[in-house]
Amino acid sequence: MSLLTAEDLAIGYGARVLARDLALALPAGSITCLLGPNGVGKTTLFKTLLGLIPAQAGRILLQGEPLARLGRSQRARRIAYVPQAHAGDAAHAVLDLVVMGRTAHLGTFATPGPADLALAHAALGLLGIAELALQLTSRISGGQLQLALIARALAQQAAVIVMDEPTASLDLGNRIRVLDQIRALAGSGLAILLATHEPEQAFALADRVAVLTPDGQFATGPVRTILTAERLSRLYQASLLVEQAPSGRLVVSPAVPAAPSQR
Amino acid sequence: MATSPASSPPAARRGGLPRAPALLLLAALLAATLLVAAGIGAYAIAPQDVLLALARHLAGQPVDATIDTVLFRIRLPRILAAMLVGAALAAAGAAYQSLFRNPLVSPDILGVSSGAGLGAVLGILLGLPVAAIQLLGFAGGLLAVGTVAALAQALRGSGDVLVLVLAGLVVGALAGAAIALVKVLADPYDQLPAITFWLLGSLAGVKAGDLAPVALAVLLGLAPLLLLRWRIGVLALGDDQAHALGVEVSRLRAVVIAAATLITASVVAVSGVIGWVGLMVPHMARLLVGARFDRLLPAAILLGASFMVAVDTLARAAAAIEIPLGVLTALIGGPAFVWLLGRSRRRLAP
Asked: B interface mutation test: which of A31, A106, A117, A192 has the most B CBs within 10 A?
């Protein structure tokens, strides 16, 4: 079942349309990677799907209901957002940051109760950072903060989670840990849409990919059909090869200039 | 669903308490400050005599005539006014800091105080009653903060710290120029000294009868801030994240700006322009209870009230003449703020 469906979608700001005729479906228990060079509108697409900015055309369905007809907190109970972790953001206790995910479930004048705190603790435990609950977000590593932001999305109990380059600023160890957690979350039935700059991440992680090109073209489908060497080369304006490593993993590498036939 | 409330570790309850010990401590500090302040002055009264007189007064029994006059006619109205002003400025400062995601904003830096001051000075010039002065002050404050927000938005987006503070400075300077113009126009023997002294901030002229309308306006502004405290705290994450977490950002922001501006303008109308409190007290409160707005707001209110009562007691009792409050808060607030900056750079975020 598709938890989020976008049909004939056009995205952009004001009069400026970045891409049109987008069609996207996020099934339960799946990971979809969104690829595209800087500035093509990945963030704009996210903001549109989250209802932060209006769609220029087309429609978005969240669990079958049009996004436009849902109130702010109804939306937040269905789709959660994991931003990139920024070190300079306001310092909160990790638990406080995570429990903010409960806001959409609270009455207008309410503050989180014991049940909300228990959910926040459970989310932290699930991501393996329970011991960080009382640490300040300014005192933990970028990887830990990213996990805390994912925990917040879990506490939000939305079935769809969109993540904006969750591994962009992480070292290798943290990157592997975050990706493992994301895989486990999809295994538990969530639908995850994740922006990434690394095609190899999509090969390793994604069930499906969506590609947004600078000229506003949009393609979506199974990873191996969409992420061909030819499309990747066009996408990133560089001649690239997709090769299979001895382990069976697919790796992307620059084509050597001496092999022009690969262009 | 991925999460379930199945197991809650023992630490689960820690976040649930509104840091009761810190708040109790601050409430006790306020009570002690009130008690001492009520006894200090030209006619000194020992704390136990203050308590006794209060108890007898409440019980409807006769109180020593001198103590009755000093305590209930002169000192307590002024102390109540100081409580109100301190609590109001600190609450408004905490709200603005969370709203603009900026630890350096405060009613004075955002131009609200100057705008409210301009409105109130105009009211004094025109010889209007207190309620009308308050209303003009509110209009001036709202106009100032609206202009600042619009300027910052037009120039580079309201999230930009520098643009916001600069816009506040510009609007504050414009209001200051207009206030200077009003001073030139004012009657030099009657209105000008009143305006000048009032611009430096003072509670010397507060009468018991002035308190009720101000208290009402402040409570009216505090109520939405207290009721919406959780959501206001979520705003500190920034517009996009707050939106995505289910907060109606623009509506909430409008409510908070109106409430904080009402609070600031109301007390400016009764106390004059008192700087630094709205900037410094929330920072001190943040050191005590952390950045979470739902805990910060009550702590800032209690601390602001204590601070203002203490400073006003200094203002009326430290020297033979009445020291303007704005002078004292700047003398105390400036160095204290520098110290806070140095101590807590990492914790300054709202």
From this structure: A117
A172 and A52 share a domain? Answer: yes
Judging by beta carbons within 10 Å of its beta carbon (0-12, 13-18, 19+), is residue B152 exposed, middle or buried?
buried
pTM beyond 0.90, yes or no: no
CATH number, position A65:
3.40.50.300
Domain assignment present for residue A83? The answer is no
Name chain B contacts of A117, Cβ cutoff 8 Å: 8, 12-13, 15-16
Query: B20-39 and B293-317 helices cross at what angle (nearest 10)?
Result: 10
Q: Is the pLDDT of residue B3 over 70?
A: no
Domain, as residue range, for A132: 88-156
Most confident listed range (B51-55, B63-67, B304-308): B304-308
With an 8 Å Cβ cutoff, are A154 and B2 in contact?
Answer: yes
pLDDT digits (tens, 9 = 90+) for B89-128: 999 999 988 887 777 778 877 788 889 899 989 988 998 8
Output the 3-class SS for B5-52: CCCCCHHHHCCCCCCHHHHHHHHHHHHHHHHHHHHCCCCCCCHHHHHH
ipTM of this predicted complex? 0.90
